[in-house]
Batch of 4 targets.
Target 1
Amino acid sequence: MRASDKAYRALLDDIVDGSLAPGTALAEVEQSERLGVSRTPLREALSQLRKDGLIEQTRGRGLTVTDVSLDDIVELYELRQPLEQQAVKLAAQRGNSQIFGQLAAEFRNADRLIEGGEVGIRAYYQLNERLDQAIEDAISSPYLVAALKSLHLHLARIRRLSRRDPVRLKAAAIETLVIIEAIVDRNPELAASATQVHMQQSLRNALEAARSREVTQRVA
Amino acid sequence: MRASDKAYRALLDDIVDGSLAPGTALAEVEQSERLGVSRTPLREALSQLRKDGLIEQTRGRGLTVTDVSLDDIVELYELRQPLEQQAVKLAAQRGNSQIFGQLAAEFRNADRLIEGGEVGIRAYYQLNERLDQAIEDAISSPYLVAALKSLHLHLARIRRLSRRDPVRLKAAAIETLVIIEAIVDRNPELAASATQVHMQQSLRNALEAARSREVTQRVA
DNA sequence: CTGTTGATAAATGTATACAAAGAATGCTGA
DNA sequence: TCAGCATTCTTTGTATACATTTATCAACAG
């Protein structure tokens, strides 16, 4: 594996999981020593992350991890809504019904996962990732897939901010199940509408979670 | 200006305008000498272009300019349709009516530009760019704007393949005018529908042009 | 004559040295 | 004491040298 890829992945993970919090300044020598690569591949990684929108150049010099505000959540969903709708529409037209049928079956058992503590929750998130992957595989359009990948990067960051409310997760699983069933039935319009519903609910939940987190932080 | 930016812009222009044709191999030393920068900033530029999807790593080693096939056009429009629809919806909600009113007036005179030969056509394209810019300004969501920018990069490449049929350009101008007027009237749904129409027609034209070009090339 | 393998050459990937641009700090003068 | 300026020091940007990988070509065996 190339050192630049290694650095990219490491920094990406650190940013997404919050180890490198928004606003953190990334000095080249410091990070290159921390990650055990020289400045050249590190700079390549940084320039990739800048394209991803995960770091930005602040006040002339100095790269810092970008912030994720309440506004960002709304703005991200303004991209997410049309992209995910288009994705499920195409998946409904082109997807392999058997694969999505299998996923539907697993989502019908999502409750059990969600009630299964930390391990179960993680399994539930992995199930969601497999769904995303199946949709991307069905789409075939590399342009849309690339846009989705970039989107999911930012969504993963936001997810960290949302509380993992089992009640909401169960509701989300049901909403998702409707989408999958529409794909299995090759009903693009229904899939799009169900996605619209899911997006709306997810956005509301994300905003509420972020707001309550803001309050908590102010109190603390 | 940084050498890496200079290299990026130069390569980007060459790829978009076709000087660097699809399939062209980009050797680092060769390009760095051609552009008058050393390998380090050149590599940074190359890695950016790879993220843009304009070049790709083929068979292990060797970066080549990505191809633009008929399939690519269809696939690109599968991203374009939802993105542009969302963009005009938001523009209709948030845009400054005066700015778009001015653009509408200019599009009403588009015929004159389109009939004005090479210079006029270029002016017409610049008018379209100003419209795109106005829409992006109105949107405010950096995520959507970034996705649109990436999209327009690839569209610019395709445009080179389309023949500039004045009849089609005039029709496109009228379609665009409908969109702008919907924005001025703050009618998001109408703007979205008009965009849907415009996309459909543009796609058809792009495909026809690409097909006839394919035939031409085969004959030649 | 063809397939495989080893050597060689060329290109990419990484590290480091050097240059240039900013920021911080301290000095001087009012 | 504070403003302005110069100097120094840190940090980024670029060039180049070095390491590593991979493709090509030739020679040899089958």
Target 2
Amino acid sequence: MSKSTVSNVIRGAGGVAPETRRRVLESIASLGYRPNAVARHLVQRQTSTFGLLVGDLANPFYSELAKLVERHASQAGYSTMICNTDGRPKLESARVESLLEHRVAGIIMLQFSGTASVIGELLAQDMPLVVASWEERSDCVSVDDQAGARLAVEHLLSLGHRRIVYVSSELVEPATDAARFEGYRNALLAAGLEPVYLRWEKVGSEVPDRATAFFVSNDVVAIQLVDTLEERGVRVPRDVSVAGFDDIALAGLRRISLTTVAQPRERLAELVVAILIRRIEDGVGLPLQQHRLHPALVVRSSTGPPPP
Amino acid sequence: MSKSTVSNVIRGAGGVAPETRRRVLESIASLGYRPNAVARHLVQRQTSTFGLLVGDLANPFYSELAKLVERHASQAGYSTMICNTDGRPKLESARVESLLEHRVAGIIMLQFSGTASVIGELLAQDMPLVVASWEERSDCVSVDDQAGARLAVEHLLSLGHRRIVYVSSELVEPATDAARFEGYRNALLAAGLEPVYLRWEKVGSEVPDRATAFFVSNDVVAIQLVDTLEERGVRVPRDVSVAGFDDIALAGLRRISLTTVAQPRERLAELVVAILIRRIEDGVGLPLQQHRLHPALVVRSSTGPPPP
DNA sequence: GTGAAAGCGCTAACAT
DNA sequence: ATGTTAGCGCTTTCAC
């Protein structure tokens, strides 16, 4: 009963006599032996751990996604090391450095803080990486942000709105925000209307009085916007309509009932993990794996016709 | 420039000549050398990774807590391996086994699925463990669930309610649920009233018509309950009052405005991590570290006087 | 102050 | 089918 035989039994490698196998298993049970993954990873020069970078776990969209990603990862035999970056580039690079030192098998970025260099560095080191938003340089899977925005804006347009404002926030990474704004802008331009870009942080001071509808770059901020508006006595959707993006669980509550662009979360999580595993197994040779998923408009009651 | 000298420089261990130190640092930079944490952990027979077990990351209370825990952990130099158990004991033990094989330095359970044996096994192996709810046998920190429930019920009582129903759900682990029910029960009994225990899953079929108020064991279910009630045309708080437990971020929204018992999340996360680190450093000799935090009632507009 | 040597617990290649 | 050997990349004595 040498180390290698025990190893063969544990790893399910063939070539072990049934009787030997039984004895090994028995000893393992009686001694309470537990294989040491650290040692295995060292000798294999490969861990079975993913690094999961998320901007803000307190944002339901990301925590829901993180949950799904972790599930798929563990089903495929991978553990998940989670890092909340708070959207801070400094923190992000520190956490990436730590993941690299831990020799994670691959990294998933649910939200990329905007420091383009981080992605470049990861790629330069051949670290398998999947970004859950559009990223030219690496494997990625995202929803078609432009199409999603167009869906929402066309809905607002068809309701009769003419003064539709785009509201952005720091919670959405710049590239994604840009794509959603672009979709919004194209839809407005096509209707011969003028796009207006507003930062959520400034809604307090400069909210355009004549706006009859807002398209907000994510649900969390959309819900906060409804809150803020109603605090000022503006009723939604009677006085003004609000549409969001993501379709977080909360958006479906009767009291919230937010019209929004739904992301296929389940499919997204599944794909992200599958793509990462593929990259890990097939290596650098594999061409870029980039997917764009279709979003769907979910009409609820935060949008309605503009006041007369 | 031997391996040990490099090691001494990296670890900041003294006894290295400034000139040598400079040269080592320079080589590290030019070669792009990155220390291998896996090897370090193997030789030290200790990782710097925490295992974080959470019942449901999609529940905002847990994701908010997870975020805080991860932050404190990383500030203390620990990585966080996250495991979503979905409240399923089978999954839970599988994930714990994986954490054990990874030789995590300690485990934090944000929600314990109810299989008492898991905790026993962990303790038997001297695995540092902190449970974020009351657990006699191990280090733990929780809010005073009984006191919290009493706060909520006394508020309802003072509003004039007499038929107050307790609503439980699978989302809350049994021990916590029991403590909250106990606090509810005591408060009702003290007022000479009869406690009623109802499972959320059964609210559809057997909701007591004469109830004028519900105390729900957590916010997520409380919010769903409000939804369900209003779907049936029952208005909150006009017809019936609802109070929850946790004070998730969502509860503060105007549209939701849920009266609830607030848990000191920030303090909880901080303590959990501090206690775990203490246990890791001081070992088995240290007596049990058990803390009970004080909850606070947050009165919002989901509660009001009962209808005449 | 620096280097040489041993060994953490495994796997993989090679003997037997 | 089983055992032996040689590392994986570090830290930690222990010599020098």
Target 3
Amino acid sequence: MSNIRDVAREAGVSVATVSRALSNPEKVSQASLNKVHSAIDKVGYRPNMLARSFRSAKSYAVVVLVPDITNPFFSQVIRSIEDRAQQKGYAVLLGDTRGVIEREKEYIRRVETRLADGVIQLRPDEPGKHTEVPDDIACVNACGCESTTGPRVRIDNRGAARAVVDYLISLGHRRIGVITGLKDNPHTVDRLAGYKEGLAAAGIEFDPSLLAEGDFTMWSGLNSAKQFCAMDDIPTALLCLNDEMAIGAMQTLKLHGLRVPEDISVTGFDDISYARYCDPSLTTVNQPAEEIGKRAMDMLLRLIEGEPLAQEESVLPAEFVIRKSTAVPRKKS
Amino acid sequence: MSNIRDVAREAGVSVATVSRALSNPEKVSQASLNKVHSAIDKVGYRPNMLARSFRSAKSYAVVVLVPDITNPFFSQVIRSIEDRAQQKGYAVLLGDTRGVIEREKEYIRRVETRLADGVIQLRPDEPGKHTEVPDDIACVNACGCESTTGPRVRIDNRGAARAVVDYLISLGHRRIGVITGLKDNPHTVDRLAGYKEGLAAAGIEFDPSLLAEGDFTMWSGLNSAKQFCAMDDIPTALLCLNDEMAIGAMQTLKLHGLRVPEDISVTGFDDISYARYCDPSLTTVNQPAEEIGKRAMDMLLRLIEGEPLAQEESVLPAEFVIRKSTAVPRKKS
DNA sequence: TTGTATGCGTTATCAG
DNA sequence: CTGATAACGCATACAA
């Protein structure tokens, strides 16, 4: 392992010149530049970035905290973050927390100990289990909700859910079931608010018995849907608060002999890639994962560099995508 | 930002003692230990890991190279790697290469410049675009094939594909179409070899016209399946070399009025979580993603620590999972 | 068990 | 434009 001194000796210049040749080439004469570069090739020098980071007290790394990297929506956002980070010369430390607060803290600690320069949070912070992110560390939230504080980029969950409900109502549905995420989850809160808004606007009374609680997994969708199948008066439409639960729910519905969308319409949320390929393809809300990741990374970079933020909150548009899982309700038999 | 010297002063001991108290507590008296710890609390000290890494010439980070983090099988493996890494005190640098060799090199460079201690490759190395991983850097391949060299953990792709074909043949299928990945992809090569083996064992002649080339995406599965629908004599079974393509293919088949599995059986490979939730649920091969990630990380750790490897190759068992997408062939009409 | 002193590889300051 | 040298924060060899 050769170091900067070896290069200096080989090139017949000082270490300072070598260092400058690499970081500020414009401050070095062409002659020295040439000598340095051929010396580098000759001794096979690779700068020790660890030393550089240490010296400059910056790690050029950010940690991305995600509850579950396996979730396709999250992985899309992360891919986008990684892309942007790479462009800007930053590394991405993957922090799959599995929802465990302890793991989250371990990663926060990594930035306290200078191993990373900042954090991107990929989950809505829930009231109870709010992580104590010290305010002296750069942090932006990338899937926030209306209740999220601090720098954040998000979509209008309430408005998007409202759009779905409005559409279902326009088709003629009036009895619309909902499969939610965990009750306290801010995504559940915001999207459910949109559902209620839509109902109210159409003069439909909110019926709590049409709510089933899931946890955003396919299995929970499958399970929660049973509750509706057991009803005497099955809803004509099912609003699922994410795509996974919609996919799981459809399996249960079909198993009970219900056809989608002829007997019951189903909608999702997120527009993961499978939404287009299920049977029937899923009517859902497209979250701009790519743009969310990019913006979050850019925001974090400004925070790290100490530049002022143009805005603390960035709300991106979400597109309502109509596919084959929704139709007009069946006539009462 | 307080440093080790501040702590030493506060505790009334030397910096060496503080350092030891943190890294080798057993070499320090209980009295000093107490003094040090209360001093740490008092000044709010956080060790500078960047300095520690620099000094010990180890970054305690590994980079994971993956073609596409969005692929659910890969993300499962990565989650497992991250889990193991975290346990061992290592960080995971995410390197989503998108198949671009240039990006891969950038990440390899990160370990050359000491920003990471080793690499886990999550793709089969293709003959042509083989990355030049210098042999002095620790590297293990986590989704290798028979042609993969170096430390690796993989499943028996050929044997697993063979098991699927044997099963289809046992059901009575003799005309079995295949949707492959790109021709040169080692996964394609190995799995296709298994297909041919199965055919040969049953005395069925290999028919090249039953091969359609995809690229492991759902879209390519959807597209490639058209080729079979256009045939006069449609195959009674379709072996897809991964789940995504199977899911895409099923959409096309249904669109053409073919029922799965009554008119045509379909199989996948990988057993991603959606395989269980498509309609019909997919008969496939379960890859032990969790175990693959764990083993790969353990292997890499040994390499990094300079310990000898028990074995250079670890071949894990893959389970054949029979679901609802396969059945006996329909009688000729 | 503890303290002193040195060096890890780089960048930055300051003279030349 | 270039060179000598002092940090950066920590770990460790060596001496006590």
Target 4
Amino acid sequence: MSDNKKKTQFLTEVELEFMTRLWELGQATVRDVQDALAPAKKLAYTSAATILRILEQKGFVTSTKLGKTFIYQATLSKDTYQSRSLKNLSEKLFDNTPAALVARLVDDYDLTEETLGEIRALIDKRLRDDKR
Amino acid sequence: MSDNKKKTQFLTEVELEFMTRLWELGQATVRDVQDALAPAKKLAYTSAATILRILEQKGFVTSTKLGKTFIYQATLSKDTYQSRSLKNLSEKLFDNTPAALVARLVDDYDLTEETLGEIRALIDKRLRDDKR
DNA sequence: GGAGAATTACGAAGGTCTTCGTAGAAAGGG
DNA sequence: CCCTTTCTACGAAGACCTTCGTAATTCTCC
């Protein structure tokens, strides 16, 4: 009688859009989230409510009732989901070799010297910290 | 009368598995690909054939007939797909800020000093090249 | 040339995703 | 108290995904 749900690790397209809004808003009602959707991604109010209900079923958000209205909040943090996604991409597409991932990134993007400098500073900091 | 197909930019789970095999094999028959699948991902022969047919419909591979057998080859390169995926991840989850993506990466992974060094070398090379 | 093996073509079944409408409950102001 | 507005719950429709079986085709080689 165990909970045999194999949890979905990842968000679908629309779910990600909603989580992004929730991450920005912190707490939000269905109405808040619907209003915050980019014009190109507007959905009917009931669609928005459905997505949030599904997100709650899947454990990505929780809700508390205030009056007759639910207030939603993300349980999955953006940082955590960034990590999870990067890890997945690295595994599935870069032979689990983060350096290869960065290589592709710096090759593809027309990164400004400034951005490159930032990245370099990150690496240096990490190298210094590790030394300790 | 234009070709109104809105092409799917991205591979599904199973499609990615198959493309990965094709990228490794170069050219391959249904049988080859099926044999190359990881044990945990084995599929019936006809399932493998179906996936390859779908990949061809979607334009990710081409086939040529040799005798009675199709030989498949990727048209989408792994490099291209890596770029596309990274770009998508950066847009959707890192506010289009590649430096933030790298920051998360170096924070999450227990990168060895060696790996960090490799990455740093990549950045330095790019910085030097850009200077020219 | 016909039996047997391998291959391709197709469709069905079951699952998930996305979107929305309808129905009913809750709230609150006149 | 009841009308209107706002909200939740639910189910349906259509799309796509995944997997496979069956049927038809092709090849081989005795």
